[in-house]
Amino acid sequence: MKNPRYTVLIVEDNPDHVLLERSVVEDMDIISSIDAVSSADDALKALKQKKYDVMLIDFDLPGMDGLSLIKRLKRKKMNMVIIMLTGLGNAKVAVEAMKAGAYDYITKESGYLKFIPATIETALEKYELLCKLEKAETELKNSETKLRALIEYSPDAVFMKDKKGKYILLNRAAVELIRGLEHRILPGELTEGLSKSEENMISKKCSSAAQIKIHLEGEDKYMDILKYPVLDDRGKVVHICTICRDVSERKKVERLKDNLIRDLSHELKTPVAVTAMAVDMSQRAIEEEDFDRIKKAQCIAEKNLQRLLQNIDNILNLFKIGSRKKIEEEEVFSLKDVVGEIVEELDYNIEAKKIKIDISIDREAEMFLGSKRTFRTLFYNMIDNSVKFTQNGTITISGRVKGKWLEMTIVDSGVGISSENIGKVFDRFYQQHTAIQGTGLGLTICREIIRLYKGRIKINSKGKDKGTEVIVRLPADRLQKNGALKKQGKGG
Amino acid sequence: MHDLYRDLFSRKKGEYELVMTYDVQEAIDRLNDTDFDLVIMDIIMQPLSGEYLFLKIREDEKVKNNQVPIIVVTVLNEENLEILKRTSNTFIFQKPFNSKDLLKKIEELLRS
């Protein structure tokens, strides 16, 4: 603190005293400048021009006295070190001056001059301390405001209880949560008063974490609840803080992931298992020289390997299609041919289930621009599904142009979808145990493919055993006139 | 899978009456109608799941026999089949399985 930086103003009407006081103050290293005025009014004027850190004010002033000046300065909230100088016998004034805000006072008795530097220094120390304190208080207030805002607007619900279990802080999210649960009993963790575990928390100073399920705004929501005791600096528990976070989305994603893995493992393992068993079956048939059975076993094996390949394709497509924005590998191909190939692949099943297949695709609805492989996947899944749910019936596959759409329809006379079933789609058992709303991986792929080609899919059923109708619409501008190859720009 | 079952049971023609379906709802309707002696099912099925079928059989009063022996044939590991483990008269076979073992189990269950 040795570099001169404090400015001093002496308010004294006796010029001799001014000189003397000036000389002792000049010797101080920390003082950078000294000015003097002879009246309170002059002092006020001087203060308008310049900032002074220290003021030596004499009580005995013409006009306004020193004490009144001090009071004036305090009213104006001027922040500086004020030292009052009074004549002998004026102790009462000195006390008043201190009360009014002076840091110290000096009585003008013989030898008083040597006390001035020390008094100024002590006063300045106090002053510096006070300034630091003020700064810290402002900073604290600012940070407190920031923290308060942080807690108030946090998306997590924050509840704070005192040791008796009474709420002392609830942020906005907490209030909304309580309001939302209004007509229902608040789960134990969120009520006022202390629960057994909370009392335990106070005595053992431990924290707890739990997940609860609540019903809010018509939905089931999952909440992570973290509870911990707040300690003072002596280590005693003063509050209990509860933070409540909505993790329903995360739970939903976790469940979808689990279900997806389940479905995937099934779609891959089952055809492999069936093939293994078919091989086993043919082993025994060879031993018994039952050639019909050998043939049957081989058909089963072949069919299931084909199915396995298709499932693998499905899975790969599922991951690729999600990220694909542009359609790749486009060529002009015949929808009729693709459908025919698939029907042939599924021939074994079709025959076994005594199903009659009818294919009728209009000439103008035949040649299509797109990825042949993707459409094979699309039709395989849709026709396979129809075959699965039909016994002793017919499946009609047709294609025609309707306005600006190519409309492909697959109608089967199979089990259909009863309105009862549609209700069951939302049954809680069903929701828990299947991943994608009721259709399995195959039809999910179909939906994705159709979306990629900017088409629409619709499923109709007149009820149980009344068959199902699947209508797929695709943009007709992808159709090519038979034989002619139109040049297309980047896929559509 | 149905082909394999058909082959498996072709040797036992006359001994059992076999009813097969791909559709869970149809299975439930049949079970509401008739008292079957044995049910063989997979777990992963669509659009209604095997768990759904299983729970319906064990808990729905409309089903003729809630205690009918059920053999669950599936690719899933036993750890994933919690609800099933809690019940009696339920047996789990993992795919691929030895058909002789399955036939033995079926005979055992139908004898009682």
What does it look like?
The complex is a heterodimer of chains A (492) and B (112). Chain A is an alpha/beta fold and 492 residues long. Chain A is built from 15 helices and 17 strands. In chain A, helix 9 packs across helix 15 (440-452) and helix 12 (372-388) runs antiparallel to helix 15. Chain B is an alpha/beta fold and 112 residues long. Chain B has a 3-stranded parallel β-sheet with strand order 1-2-3, with no helix packed on it. In chain B, helix 2 runs parallel beside helix 3. Chain A binds chain B through residues 262-263, 265-266, 269-270, 272-274, 276-278, 280-281, 293, 296-297, 299-300, 303, 352, 388-389, 415, 417-418, 420-421, 424-425, 427, 429-430, 432-434, 438-440, 464, and chain B through 1, 3-4, 7, 22-23, 25-26, 44, 46-52, 55, 74-76, 80, 95-99.
Task: Record the SSE blueprint.
The complex is a heterodimer of chains A (492) and B (112).
Chain A: E1 6-11, H1 15-26, E2 31-37, H2 40-49, E3 54-58, H3 66-75, E4 81-86, H4 91-100, E5 104-107, H5 115-152, E6 157-162, E7 167-170, H6 172-180, H7 196-204, E8 208-216, E9 219-231, E10 237-246, H8 248-287, H9 291-323, E11 331-334, H10 335-345, H11 347-352, E12 356-361, E13 367-370, H12 372-388, E14 394-402, E15 405-412, H13 419-424, H14 428-433, H15 440-452, E16 456-461, E17 468-475
Parallel strand pairs in A: 1-2, 1-3, 3-4, 4-5, 12-14
Antiparallel strand pairs in A: 6-7, 6-10, 8-9, 9-10, 11-13, 14-15, 15-17, 16-17
Helix pairs in contact in A: 3-4, 8-9, 9-15, 10-12, 12-15
Chain B: H1 2-10, H2 24-33, E1 39-41, H3 50-59, E2 70-74, H4 82-85, E3 90-94, H5 99-111
Parallel strand pairs in B: 1-2, 2-3
Helix pairs in contact in B: 2-3
